[in-house]
Amino acid sequence: MRTLIYQRGVGLMRLGFLKAGYGPLSGSRSLSSDAMNKFQALEVKEAAPFVYQVSLNRPEKRNALNKTMWHEIGAVFEELAHDEDCRAIVLTGNGPMFTAGIDLNDLTSLASVVTSDDDVAKKAKVLYKTIRDYQIPFNRLEECSKPVIAAVHNACVGGGVDLITAADIRICTQDTYFQVKEVDVGLAADVGTLQRLPKVLGNQSLVRELCFTARKFPSDEAKHAGFVSQVYPDKETMLNEALSLAKEIAEKSPVAVQGTKSSLIYARDHSVEDGLEQIARWNMTMLQSKDLMTSAMAMMTKQKDPPTFSKL
């Protein structure tokens, strides 16, 4: 097992969580094998060859999303996007639940901005930047070129729903419930749920019911509605299945898998014709990759073991 290092220092960039010259800004690289236990709110480890597990790691706080965790999520997914030893990622939570949502201590810290005597224009400018800054880390998850499997147990509340709607695949345990909680604390969800959930579910009536009422959305209903693809009896079984799925994905051509993710996201937000143009331009280059010949030869020779692909 390898654990990633969370780099700190001067020259911080992008919400203060990326060190200048480190990670994707300095080109493709693999993460150091001796960089261990430096994340404050995440546990990150190599769970299998080319498969990483990212775990929310504030179990004593029910994995409440505080500012540190928020920023580390952005940092780790941007870093893994550029790690050639990563081909698939499992996102889960340590402790009794996946997440209780945003840490209320962080939320109440905004009260000082709202209740200050500053002009409304100045306060609005500060709040706008704060909201946009909080959106970026979850965008990093969606933009990560590697498939992300969200494995959820017990409860996924508020900001947790924003987080997992940015994942590629969602699975959960039988005791899981999801809850778009923001209206209960007097605000509209503003870091992704209202934008991504309608596209995930494709049922505007159900989406609006969930978002207007903040009711619990149990696992069986979530499976029926297509929000999750599988429901498992317990966390151990779920994690084993999530890692098995991730390993299966990691055995495929990284050129093919990453191209597929890129095109699926593009197609979601564009017309069919735009999507066809995008994949044509992608494949005019990628069809020349050695991965295509490697895959074809494995199929033609009925090779039993998965073919070996170059790192990407």
Automatic annotation (TrEMBL):
SUPFAM superfamilies: ClpP/crotonase. One of its GO terms (cellular component) is peroxisome. It is found in: Peroxisome. It comes from the Eukaryota. The keyword Acetylation applies. One of its GO terms (molecular function) is delta(3,5)-delta(2,4)-dienoyl-CoA isomerase activity. Pathway: Lipid metabolism; fatty acid beta-oxidation. Pfam families: ECH_1. InterPro entries: ClpP/crotonase-like_dom_sf, Ech1-like, Enoyl-CoA_hydra/iso, Enoyl-CoA_hydra_C. One of its GO terms (biological process) is fatty acid beta-oxidation. Keywords: Acetylation, Fatty acid metabolism, Isomerase, Lipid metabolism, Peroxisome. It catalyses: (3E,5Z,8Z,11Z,14Z)-eicosapentaenoyl-CoA = (2E,4E,8Z,11Z,14Z)-eicosapentaenoyl-CoA; (3E,5Z)-octadienoyl-CoA = (2E,4E)-octadienoyl-CoA. NCBIfam families: PRK06142.1 (NF004794). Belongs to the enoyl-CoA hydratase/isomerase family. Isomerization of 3-trans,5-cis-dienoyl-CoA to 2-trans,4-trans-dienoyl-CoA. This is Delta(3,5)-Delta(2,4)-dienoyl-CoA isomerase, mitochondrial. It comes from Tigriopus californicus (Marine copepod). The lineage of its organism: Eukaryota, Metazoa, Ecdysozoa, Arthropoda, Crustacea.
